Amino acid sequence: MGIWQLLSVELLTAALGLGLLAVGLLMPGRERRGLAYVATAGLMGIAAVAWAMREAQGVVLNGYIIDPFGTYFKLLFLASAVLTCIASFDYIGRLPRGEGEFYALLVLATLGMMLVASAGELITLYLGLELMTISLCILVTYRKGDMKSAEAGLKYIILGALSSAVLLYGLSFIYGATGSTLLEDIGRVVAREGVKPLLGVGIIFVLAGFAFKMAAVPFHMWAPDVYEGAPTPITGFLSVASKAAGFAAFLRIFFGALPASHGLWAELIVALSVLSMVIGNLVAIPQKNIKRLLAYSSISQAGYLLLGVVAFSVLGVGAILYYSMIYVFANMAAFTAATAFFNEDGSDEIADFAGLARRSPLLAAVLLFSLLSLAGIPPLAGFVSKFYLFVAVIGQGYIWLALLAVLMSMVSVYYYLQVAKAMYFGEPPAGRAAVRVPLGMQVALVVCLAVLFFFGLYPTPLTGYAFNSAMVFLGQ
Amino acid sequence: MEGGASVAIFWLLAALTVGAAVAVVMLPNIVHSALYLVLTFIGVAGIYILLEAEFLAAVQVLIYAGGVAVLLIFGVMLTRRGHIRQSNPFNSYHVAAGVVSLALFILVVLALGRSPWHAFPGPWPEDTVGAVAEAFLGPYVLPFEVAAVLLLVGIVGAILLAREEKGEK
Fold it and tell me: Does the predicted model carry a pTM greater than 0.80?
């Protein structure tokens, strides 16, 4: 396959993003609604292209790796971007301006994530990560005039810059210790000479930078405030896609290029995982705001995903791939439902969800099942994905870790069901009409539910794809 | 260049860079800090020249010392309210921050001291500008283009955030 063909997904995404930006400037204000449809259709088209080349393998130029592992993550980013677009129609349409730029930035953030997932070279990786972070920073502050959104943007940009600086410092150490920015060469040098102290410091810095993107404890402090202040669809995008990009880059560097350094960071990952699961789940319990609740739940999900890293095996990587895809649909469904509710009532407080089941059975059902999937209740897909992660760590002898994870999942059922209790047993406030859900959103929500049920009952197609990608990735 | 002289110049430049950087953090007046930042940038440019990367040094002076620092001072001028003498205050964490920074510094120095270095592989390029250009538009064309998109996103974001709403004033 030629260069153009291998790069087609990235090139199309870049063209779509830049095209939206240009067309958005030329269009008169009222017509800009159409851009949302163009963005959604375009992203779906690109997803079809990515699906067509799911088996493609090759290296472009200086270590830009196209392989099933990277393409899996690209499909994941595209799926979450499509769902974010659909969730944004009404929410962003109500803001005074900047509709055209919103979708362009969303697409370009997706492009950044794709570059991260495929980068086999440190400079490309860093620039992809920055493209993602800067685009997301702007999207987070999109509710201009709202103090919380401004605070979220400021926190995200300062802490994001700090984490980028730490990451970059770490990358410079890795370059200094190995003499190359190409992951392939770095891997070769490390396999030959072992892990030198300088490389060790570099690895720890890089680890901290990625843990920030994944929102793993103790690098999570930005997440609740930023998630609460950002526009709700962007919160969803941030929680699924930015996290997945962090994991993609982590796996690419540490599993792909530096397996020789495993002994150095294995214990660190166990600590990150335990802290994320325990603190994320326990702090989620007293939350009153649905976005803060989902923020802490997303921190705990990072802890579960890290179990796959702890396992350090094909099963572990496959479980991470499967889990993150299911997580996209569960979390995006929850955030889309929260967006629809916010569009109607203008509130994110869980107390205001009282009686939602009577005002909109669809929203209540979607929220209930997506939260149950996040908690890992059968027959939803979240159960299967957690099951694989737990099996992967038990296979490596970490039985206590799996037990802790199961225990924490039980804790999570409690706070997820608090929301369900409000929706199904609370009294709706008097005089409130039914919640109106636009058709596009209804379709997206039903598709998410269908995915959660289908892969919960019959996970083989997706697990097969995930484990194959993991096997090709680890060369086994 | 003679080995001893080169080492002496390096330490001089390093002392200048680090000293100016400390002044940036410690001075109470943010305009003074910005001016010391220019000195830091020039010190780094000197180190580039020492490494025979003249083009990089020129770019460093033009963009960082010339562009970024001046923009910074303009930004301070246009946004600053209140007294300029106390415009770069410390928060209450300076002791903790000092201890953590010192620990990190010792850790990094120890790691540096215990690791052998990789010398530059292959011969020095005769023409550094040409080599940089060939790298940008050759093997590194992908990150080069991504940087272009990244800058575009930055500009769009700055306009979006800074532009006044119609109904605002």
Answer: yes
